């Protein structure tokens, strides 16, 4: 296929796309330059829709047939590959600007950038066809490379992007050639009809994308396997009872147990991994006497434990809500590690997720007698896909980024010298023990409350040490002891309430907590990076 650009040979008689008698001959302009620039832009955008739509559909079909490594959506793969290569400053900017909407923002950003890129390439193709087509092929190649760079991808995963890109190239070329053909009234039945082409191409692209999403989302083996787990009741479900009085039930304060649907979610996955429990495996490798691999059935055969554990994100700001408490059901990690036999000298376990995310956990926190679990249930239900189905790790006392691997597939016994988890080279500390902190839930900052008795309430946490005391300060008054809820476990947060005699005016309410060693939380302000925010949570309220 030779592609000549019309501008280079404006009146080449051998060029069938620019026949003699073409109106361009009279004006000196080419067909390409005659069509408005946005014709080219639309060509490019519709080509992009075709590529992405057909690519998504094919990828879903491959995954549904179990043929590929399982990379559902090319655009998501590009976004995820981008996340993993994002410099820390950009990541921090994204999180501080978009908060937990950072993923949606990234997807929207990716789509905007791709749209603009496709539009530019479309315009280019109508001017200099080989250059435009080459640019399009390069974008396709970058997409293919992004897909292949995703953990767990197989060579076949590149096929959908390839087919989609070839289709997009074909559409672009066809459109650019069409732009050289004279308008209807001069050309009769061979007339170019860009409007129809855009509608058809765009329609096919959107339909394919929708069908791909449908196949990828609903009917997967993973969904079926999760439903099967839900139907089989956990042997230990309900054996653990939240002590009466652990939940003060103050309106507006966070409940002691956070329902799964309200539980915060943090991870680097654009598309939530959907792992089929039947194919899930976890292996223990590295500095061990013998490598061990367990599957779902083996794990289910082990005696399950239930534990109340408060998860905590290191990115949580003072007063933030990237934390939640749940009842987790699972098998202690230490029993699996004991089967493998960690060798002397090892001090870290590098956990790996099916999506390639890793974290480094101190070996001792997984082998001592705390409730570090291979959790399979959250508040009695199978883990939601967002929270790690079929199996995740939960370790009391450590921030999630060094401990709480969702969709866990490998535990490599190693050393902090030899390995590091995902966030460490991105500026976060290798060790992440949870800091003692406390939060005012009610009244909310900026709220107006009536004068008189007001319940000031919230939570305090010092996972695996436990909370011994909470104090509240109003304006510059003395620190006064709050009433603590019944202590459920050292691994969970503890609610508190303070009966405040509110007088009219503007007031600052502050809280501070003590752990069971008697240590008070630090009053000094520190940002989340590198190892967790500190400071006194203060809310200002109006009393009428
Ligand atoms: N596979 C995987 N597991 C992960 C993460 C991740 O990005 N990928 N993020 C961790 C972090 S930083 C936190 S705070 C917790 C959050 O768990 P949740 O989303 O269930 O609340 O998951 C941890 N486990
Ligand atoms: Mo986190």
From TrEMBL:
One of its GO terms (biological process) is sulfur compound metabolic process. It comes from the Bacteria. Pfam families: Oxidored_molyb. GO terms for molecular function: heme binding; molybdopterin cofactor binding; sulfite oxidase activity. Residues 1-30 are annotated as: Disordered. The chain crosses the membrane at residues 44-68, 105-124, 131-148, 154-172. The keyword Phosphoprotein does not apply. Keywords: Membrane, Transmembrane, Transmembrane helix. Residues 271-423 form the Oxidoreductase molybdopterin-binding domain. InterPro entries: Ig_E-set, OxRdtase_Mopterin-bd_dom, OxRdtase_Mopterin-bd_sf. This is DMSO/TMAO reductase YedYZ molybdopterin-dependent catalytic subunit. It comes from Terracoccus luteus.
């Amino acid at each position: 296929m030779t592609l000549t650009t019309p501008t280079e040979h404006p009146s080449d008689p051998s060029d069938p796309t620019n026949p003699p008698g073409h109106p361009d001959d009279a004006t000196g302009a080419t067909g390409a330059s005659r069509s408005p620039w946005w014709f080219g832009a639309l060509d490019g955008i519709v080509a992009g829709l075709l590529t992405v739509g057909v690519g998504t559909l094919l990828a879903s079909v491959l995954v549904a047939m179990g043929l590929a490594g399982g990379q559902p959506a090319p655009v998501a793969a590009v976004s995820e590959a981008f996340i993993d290569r994002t410099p820390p400053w950009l990541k921090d900017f994204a999180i501080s600007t978009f908060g937990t909407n950072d993923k949606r923002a990234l997807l929207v950003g990716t789509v905007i950038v791709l749209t603009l890129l496709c539009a530019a390439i479309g315009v280019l193709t109508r001017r200099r066809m080989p250059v435009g087509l080459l640019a399009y092929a390069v974008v396709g190649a970058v997409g293919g490379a992004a897909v292949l760079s995703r953990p767990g991808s197989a060579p076949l995963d590149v096929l959908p992007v390839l087919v989609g890109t070839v289709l997009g190239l074909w559409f672009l070329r066809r459109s650019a050639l069409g732009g050289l053909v004279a308008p209807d009234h001069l050309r009769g039945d061979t007339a170019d009809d860009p409007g129809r082409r855009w509608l058809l191409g765009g329609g096919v692209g959107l339909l394919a994308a929708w069908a791909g999403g449908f196949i990828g989302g609903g009917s997967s083996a993973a969904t079926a396997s999760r439903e099967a787990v839900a139907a089989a009741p956990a042997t230990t479900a309900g054996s653990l009872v939240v002590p009466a009085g652990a939940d003060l039930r103050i309106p507006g304060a966070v409940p002691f147990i956070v329902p799964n649907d309200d539980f915060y979610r943090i991870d680097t996955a654009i598309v939530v991994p959907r792992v089929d429990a039947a194919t899930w495996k976890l292996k223990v490798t590295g500095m061990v006497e013998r490598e061990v691999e367990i599957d779902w059935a083996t794990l289910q055969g082990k005696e399950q434990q239930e534990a109340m554990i408060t998860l905590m994100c290191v990115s949580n700001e003072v007063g933030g809500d990237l934390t939640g408490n749940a009842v987790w059901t699972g098998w202690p990690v230490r029993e699996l590690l004991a089967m493998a036999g960690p060798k002397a000298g090892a001090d870290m376990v590098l956990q790996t997720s099916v999506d390639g995310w890793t974290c480094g956990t101190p070996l001792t926190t997984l082998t001592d007698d705390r409730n570090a679990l291979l959790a399979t249930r959250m508040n009695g239900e199978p883990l939601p896909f967002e929270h790690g189905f079929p199996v995740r790790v939960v370790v009391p006392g450590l921030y999630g980024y060094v401990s709480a691997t969702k969709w866990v597939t490998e535990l490599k016994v190693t050393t902090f010298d030899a390995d590091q988890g995902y966030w460490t080279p991105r500026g976060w500390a290798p060790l992440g023990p949870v800091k003692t902190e406390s939060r005012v839930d009610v009244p909310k900052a900026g709220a107006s409350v009536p004068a008189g008795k007001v319940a000031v309430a919230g939570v305090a946490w010092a996972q695996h040490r436990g909370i011994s005391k909470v104090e509240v300060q109003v304006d510059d008054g003395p620190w006064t002891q709050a009433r603590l809820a019944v202590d459920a476990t050292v691994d969970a947060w503890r609610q508190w309430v303070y009966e405040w005699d509110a007088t009219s005016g503007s007031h600052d309410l502050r809280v501070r907590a003590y752990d069971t060693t008697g240590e008070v939380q630090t009053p000094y302000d520190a940002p989340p990076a590198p190892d967790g925010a500190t400071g006194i949570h203060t809310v200002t309220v109006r009393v009428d």
